[in-house]
Write a structure and sequence with these properties.
The chain is an alpha+beta fold. Helices cover about 40% and strands about 10% of the residues. A hairpin with a 2-residue loop joins strand 2 and strand 3 (about 80-85). The longest helix has 13 residues, at about 55-65.
């Protein structure tokens, strides 16, 4: 049955502000909300360019859904995502605008350097002896 694939969506009026704010503290989840807010149409899960694995992305979508921020449904085999903007604005006026504005203007995290063997960062140019411990 088609309805079996659609996850449960809480009533936004029953969700505490604390849960909503905790969902929005993560930059990946804020980026999802921002993209949905700016999009002309709902977006399938695979339509987001997220810096995380698919399983981690699934976790982020679940947190947003359980906090009442997004609605998920299927079109064929694609799970679609829609921002529950009207419902959120009714219960938490101005929250979405504040989050999206902050997300657009906040600096993006700096990429961490590639890790070498054993998970260590590569040695600085010139090695340890070049002005370092043995220099």
């Amino acid at each position: 049955m088609e309805d079996d694939r659609i996850p449960a969506h809480p009533d936004v009026r029953t969700i505490p502000l604390q849960q909503v704010l905790e969902a929005l503290v993560d930059p990946v989840r804020r980026s999802i909300v921002t993209k949905l807010c700016e999009a002309a149409e709902d977006i399938r899960c695979g339509g987001f360019d997220l810096p995380v694995s698919n399983s981690t992305a699934t976790h982020h979508f679940r947190i947003l859904r359980e906090a009442g921020l997004i609605r998920q449904y299927y079109v064929g085999t694609s799970r679609m995502n829609a921002l529950r903007r009207d419902e959120i604005d009714e219960v938490f006026p101005g929250l979405v605008d504040a989050i999206v504005t902050a997300d657009r203007t906040s600096p993006r995290p700096v990429q961490q350097p590639a890790r070498g063997p054993a998970g260590r960062a590569p040695a600085p140019a010139g090695g340890i002896g070049a002005g370092g411990l043995l220099g």
